[in-house]
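User: I need a structural model of K+-transporting ATPase ATPase C chain from Celerinatantimonas diazotrophica for a docking pre-check later this week. Nothing fancy, just the predicted structure tokens so I can convert them on my end. Input:
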Amino acid sequence: MLSSFRTFILLTIILGGGYPLLVTCFAQSFWPNQANGSLVKNRQGQVIASLLIGQSFQSPFYLHGRPSFSNYDPNAAGHSNWPLMLPQRRTLASSIIASSSVKKQPPAMLTYSGSGVDPDIPIPAAVMQFPRISKSCDISQATLKQILSHQRKSGLLGPEIVNVVSFNLALKPVCHAESKSS
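Assistant: Understood. Predicted structure tokens for K+-transporting ATPase ATPase C chain:
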């Protein structure tokens, strides 16, 4: 009995304290930005976003992300688990199509992401929004494609994607109309 209690205490110290400490030190040493949540700070040093959590961008000046079941609240993150034929799912898709000038939307823009706070969208979903952004920001679509070429990344198991937050941060300095209205 005493031997199993010692083993329990030893393993608790090693696996409950030592291993997490080792992994944290390793991550902080080699990937400090990612280990701290990929936080984005403004010029004053205030945290304004995380590249790991999607945000709601409603302004026509910005790239819009996927719909969020949790309204982009990471504490309430999760999927709706709505089946394909559920009327609410069709209502969501219909309302997105009705509110957009583009009637043929990529599927990613008509469905909730698995986590509800997905920060990335597929490249076609981004390019589809270029006419609206170009008109609102008074910049060419070529400029938007250039920004996209610097922001795109390979999807883990799927298509190439773009992080909406990082794209919008890169877009902000060149968006002429947005800076005039601020």
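Before docking, keep this in mind: The chain is about 45% helix and 10% strand.
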